[in-house]
Amino acid sequence: MQTTSTILMIRPARFLSNPQTSPSNAFQKSDIDHQEAQQNALAEFDAYVGELRRCGVDVLVIDDTVEPHTPDSIFPNNWISLHADGKVLLYPMEAPNRRLERNNKVLEKIKHVFAVEEVIDLSGFERVGQYHEGTGTMIFDHDQKMTYVCFSSRSSENVMKAVSETIGYQSFWFHSVDRHGKPIYHTNVMMCVGKTLAVVCLESIRDWNERDALIQALTDSGKEIIDISYDQLEHFAGNMIELSSRNGEPVFALSRQAWSSLTPEQQTAISSYARVALAPIDTIERLGGGGARCMVAEIFLPRRAR
């Protein structure tokens, strides 16, 4: 199943621009006061949750705690993935303060509602300087049992091998860079794969052989490609996600600035296929360097019997 109607989101307690992640995240800014950042992020978070629920998505909201301070807790998809066979994977994180997000209390709250068969903790790779930040690093095509991964300081071939052995997926690696030639820190900034649509910034893949191979892999799997530009990528147009409503209707979630950057033709390609949940998350994108997709951890786990 490529999409889910149930997701996890973490409500921020002390959101701000994380100085430990900015060296590898060119999208981050740090120009807003800490108190204002938290106030804005909280309002944006609540509005986004409301929009997703309006579109029929079930959102499990868990409040972050003030201590320990986890400024990026609003992006849970990087440290956890929750699979249909009952497996939960925990991932190695590059920034030391992001490792604190792997929170047993969050996991216990998930277990209270959903059936968890096994927790696979890959965080030990941190001890040897290898990081692989969940569905920020990996774009899953569950129907094809494939993961798409771009090379960066936050992706690891060794960790990817361990993930593949655990869930039985193949991996497709490629290089993706921003307009200045710096590696894209997370694959989900430049790429989204849904049931029938794939949004990709093809110009960020400068090796033509890699670009052609990616196009071939996506078209062979039945995807229509929406090619976005660097300008659209910089407005987080690659950072969208396809979900589904409780009734099985497709829902595309993305930020308002991402939506505004799309051409009328691209907007029509998405809106004619799915309901659109628009997230007003300007502060979160500006300070966190992540967007609407980063805020969502999909839950494919089966629910506990009542």
Task: Write structural notes for this entry.
Helices cover 29% and strands 21% of the residues. The chain has 306 residues and is α/β, with parallel strands linked by helices. The chain is globular, with a radius of gyration of 18 Å. A hairpin with a 4-residue loop joins strand 3 and strand 4. It has a three-stranded mixed β-sheet, covered by helices on one side. The chain is built from ten helices and 15 strands. The protein has a single domain, classed as 5-stranded Propeller (L-arginine/glycine Amidinotransferase, Chain A), CATH 3.75.10.10. The longest helix has 21 residues, at 34-54.
Structural key phrases:
306 residues, three-stranded mixed sheet, L-arginine/glycine Amidinotransferase, Chain A, alpha/beta, Amidinotransferase, globular
